[in-house]
Prior knowledge:
Elements: H1 2-84, E1 112-116, E2 120-123, E3 133-137, E4 147-155, E5 161-167, E6 178-182, E7 188-190, E8 199-202, E9 208-211, E10 219-223, E11 228-237, E12 240-245, E13 250-252, E14 258-260, E15 268-271, E16 275-278, E17 286-291, E18 296-298, E19 301-304, E20 310-314, E21 317-320, E22 326-328, H2 333-337
Antiparallel strand pairs: 1-4, 1-7, 2-3, 4-5, 5-6, 8-11, 8-14, 9-10, 11-12, 12-13, 15-18, 15-22, 16-17, 19-20, 20-21
Amino acid sequence: MQSESIAQSKASAASLSASISSSQVVSTSQSLSASAAVVASQSLSRQQSQSQSRSRSVAISLELSQSIAQSEAQFSTATSQSQNQVTRPIGAPTASLKEGSALARPTRFKRFSVNSDKKIGLYRKPTFTKGNRIRWYAKQPRSRQPQFVVIGVTTSKHGVLRYRVKDVNHHSKTYGTTGYVTARRAFVKRTYHVQRPQLITVLNPQGIDSYRTAKLKGKVTHYRQGQQLKVQRVVKHHLTTRYQLTNGRYVTANKQLVYAGRLKYPRRITVRYGANLYRDVNFHARAGQHYVGHQTVRVLGWNYSDHGTLRYRISGGYVTANQRYVSATTQHLLAGERLL
C-alpha cells in the first residue's frame, strides 16, 4: 500500500512538473510573439516616418525649385524692361511737375550753377509769396545775368519744383544769401556749356585766358573779345566744364564769357545825327569828344551798362548803340546775346 501511494505521488509530481513546464513554454512563446509584434510595429512605424520625411523633403525641394524659377523669371523680366526703358538724363524735366524744370530731381543730388534768363525772384520759402520774397533780379543780357549755385531741390506746398540756391554774384547786395527760385526752364538755364561746338567766340569784354591744365592754372595766352577759337573737346572739372582747344590749351566754358559758335559783331559804325564819347559804360563821365553825323568810327568791342543797355567800345571810351543815333553794318550779337 505504501508503495502504491508513493508511486501515485511520483506520478502526480511528474504530471505537475509537466504541466508547469508546458505552461512555461506557452508563456515564453506568448512573450516572444508579443515582443516580435512590438518590434514589427516599431519597424513599420519607423519605415512610415522615413517615407513621410522623404516625401516631405521631396516636396520642399520641389517648392524651392519652383520659387527659384519664379525669381529667375521675374529677374529676367525686370532686366528686359530696364533695357527697353529709355534712360532720363539728369537735366530732363519730369511730367509730374506742374511748371516744368530745367533739370529733373536727381537720385544723388550734385550741385550745379544756373543763370536767370528773365526777371526772377529770390524767396525765403519754396512756396512763393510777396511776404517771403527777398528781392527781385532784373532781366539782364547774357554777360550780366545773375548767377546762382543750386544747393538743393524741393517742392512748394502745391508740388511745384523749386531750386534752393546761393547767390554768387560778387557785386550783388545779397551775395552769399540762400533762398529759393523757380526751376522753370524759361527762367533759369545752365551756366556752363556741356556740348562741343566746332568753334567758340569770346564774349567777355575783358577777354579770356588760356591755360595749360583744366584747373585753369599756368596761363599761356590771352584772347580778346570777339576772337573765335577752334574746340577739340569738352572737359568736366568739378561743377564746371572747360573747352580744350585744338592747340591743347584750356579755356572756360562759362556761357557768360564765351559763345558756342560763330558770333559776328559790327567792325564799324556810322554816326547818324551825332554821338558823344563817354569814359565809362554807364555814361556817367563824358570824354570830351563829340562825333558828328555821317562820321565813321571803328568798333573795338561791346559791353552793357548796369541796366542792360548795349554800348559800343571804341578808342577812348564808349558810344551809344541806339540805332536812332548810329547805324551798324551787321546786326549785333543775335538780338542782344540772349541765345543760350
